[in-house]
Amino acid sequence: TTMSKVILPHAVEIHTLENEADKLLYKLTAALFKTNDAIHIIKYKEIYELLEFATDSCEDVANVLQDIVRKHG
């Protein structure tokens, strides 16, 4: 349907971007712990976790949209 043609490609892109964000989080967190600067680690770890929460939330929205399209498509 028209709705699925509009929404589903965006949902797929959101999933792809969230997976890339996860990989980046792991990479940045590993690099962060190599600094041995406790204040820097605490500050940036919290920022990274908030960004991870934001990308996860976007993926949750994409999942809901996909479910709606599948049920009412």
Please describe the topology of this protein.
Elements: H1 2-32, H2 38-72
Describe this structure in words.
The protein is mainly α. 90% of the residues lie in helices and 0% in strands. It has 2 helices and no strands. Helix 1 runs antiparallel to helix 2. The mean pLDDT is 93.
Average pLDDT confidence is 93
Poorly predicted spans: none
Overall 3D shape: elongated
> How much of the sequence is in beta strands?
under 5%
Q: Total helix count?
A: 2
Quaternary organisation: single chain
Task: List the helices and strands in order.
Answer: HH
Helix/strand-derived class?
mainly alpha
Strand segment count = 0
Quick rundown:
Helices cover 90% and strands 0% of the residues. By secondary structure, the chain is mainly alpha-helical.
Describe the structure using short key phrases.
single chain; 73 residues; mainly alpha; 2 helices; 0% strand
